[in-house]
Write a structure and sequence with these properties.
Helix content is 73%, strand content 0%. The chain is mostly helical.
Length: 299
């Protein structure tokens, strides 16, 4: 391993508080999941619980693993962090249907007195309905992506630890917002028809495509901080920038394509089922309430 890479790894320290937070979240989920499975073995399948824990692990990888040692030297590593926090970890956690297990896993008094009091507030309920609207979720994710990649904001995050934490919090929070209407975990309310999520995902690729295309084809280094940063693996700052842009372009396209394909199959299957229903009715006799003559017009 190159000496510069060794020096960067030696600067890494084990993130005690982050690890403790991830462990407590995992313990609360596991406690609630076991409680729910005891009452009903089919309520949350094992694969959903595994998805939740894998999402937690990826958050730890992005924020606390030795990977963080290189985020100030390599834009590609910074991009990996952003992808993990915004595009990969949130949908995995939401697929774990986290709300119900966490409510059953956290201390009962805390849930009833603190969370219950907050969620019963009319202002909190109105705010939740507004924030979880698909249009708001899309705008929040797009604004976070574009805003934090503006050179001035990006440089501020590299130079200030406080702003660096705020940057990561924005990516993670907007990631949960973006994926909420797509995954629709309990207790989400359907605001758009499911076919609308195909348009939602397609439009979400546009800011990513524009930004990643700019990073790939730009003939200069966009973020000056990387011009003077050590190059631990011998690639130039411009090559690093092109690699980061290509990584974003490829990963976002493939990851968004997966739920779009699943939704398309589901919609086509449902439509096929609707079209087959009259055929099944005619084969086995008229359906209830459909004893009209054959010449009657079909609505």
């Amino acid at each position: 391993m190159p000496p510069l890479a060794q020096n960067a790894l030696q600067s890494w320290t084990f993130p005690v508080w982050l690890t403790l937070a991830m462990t407590l979240a995992g313990f609360a989920y596991l406690r609630g999941w076991i409680h729910l499975r005891t009452a009903n073995a089919k309520v949350i399948p094992v694969w959903r619980a595994a998805s939740f824990f894998f999402g937690l692990f990826l958050i730890w990888v992005a924020l606390g693993s030795p990977l963080t040692s290189f985020d100030e030297e390599l834009l590609t590593v910074h991009m990996i962090q952003h992808l993990l926090l915004m595009t990969i970890a949130p949908p995995l956690i939401l697929l774990g249907a986290p709300v119900m297990p966490l409510l059953h896993g956290l201390p009962r008094q805390f849930v009833q007195t603190v969370l219950g009091s907050v969620f019963r507030l009319p202002a909190a309920q109105r705010a939740g309905k507004i924030i979880l609207q698909p249009a708001v979720c899309w705008l929040a994710a797009s604004a976070t992506l574009v805003g934090w990649h503006v050179p001035a904001a990006f440089t501020l995050g590299l130079q200030s630890e406080v702003w660096h934490v705020a940057e990561h919090a924005c990516f993670l929070g907007s990631g949960f917002l973006f994926w909420w209407p797509v995954v629709q975990p309990w207790p989400s309310v359907v605001a758009w028809p499911r076919w609308g999520m195909l348009l939602y995902l397609f439009l979400a690729t546009l800011p990513c495509d524009i930004l990643s295309g700019f990073l790939v084809f730009c003939d200069r280094v966009v973020y000056p901080s990387y011009l003077t940063a050590p190059r631990p693996f011998g690639i130039s700052a411009l090559e690093d920038q092109q690699c980061a842009g290509a990584l974003m372009w490829t990963c976002v396209t493939l990851i968004y394509l997966l739920p779009a394909a699943i939704l398309t199959v589901q919609l086509l299957t449902e439509r096929s089922g609707w079209e087959d229903e009259p055929l099944r009715s005619n084969q086995h006799g008229s359906a209830p309430g459909q004893n009209e003559p054959q010449s009657a017009e079909v609505a």
